[in-house]
Specification:
0% strand, globular, mainly alpha
């Protein structure tokens, strides 16, 4: 039986336990094939494990979204690993904020119009909070950009 290291684990160091294969495959699928071809790099298992560790529990959908929104600046797979670190830090900060406010933890990905509306409301709250860090502000901008069309089609919109 293997256990994770619990001594002040850095986000840059993977845990002693390896992530399950389906999670690594989900991360691999988040990287578009044509991007891999353009870069001439194939993501190694080790890179996928580092990305998994840096996501720190954040949904892989957030990584997919960031890759789609920032694709033009991706010059290597290392940029995607950097994105994962930003996403993981942002996710953990959102989780801390929600714990302090006794809100429920974030769902993996919003699917219903109500979930999307709640996510958009949270993103707007973060953008209006001068205390929120730049990582949270970036997440909020990316979230609003990614869901802009969904709110129009789901009957939502700004109020």
């Amino acid at each position: 039986m293997t256990t994770a290291v619990s001594v002040s684990q850095s986000a840059d160091r993977p845990t002693d336990t390896l992530p399950p294969e389906p999670e690594l495959e989900a991360i691999r699928q988040a990287i578009p094939e044509d991007l891999i071809e353009d870069l001439g790099e194939v993501p190694s298992r080790r890179l996928l494990q580092r990305i998994h560790a840096k996501l720190r529990g954040a949904p892989v959908e957030w990584l997919t979204q960031r890759i789609r929104l920032r694709r033009r600046i991706i010059t290597s797979l290392g940029v995607i690993e950097h994105f994962a670190g930003d996403i993981g830090n942002t996710y953990q900060e959102i989780q801390r904020r929600r714990q302090r406010s006794s809100a429920a933890p974030l769902p993996p990905a919003p699917s219903s119009p109500e979930d999307i509306a709640a996510l958009i409301a949270e993103a707007r709250d973060i953008l209006s909070d001068p205390q929120a860090g730049s990582g949270l502000h970036q997440w909020a901008r990316d979230t609003l950009a990614a869901h802009a069309n969904k709110t129009k089609t789901a009957g939502g919109g700004s109020s």
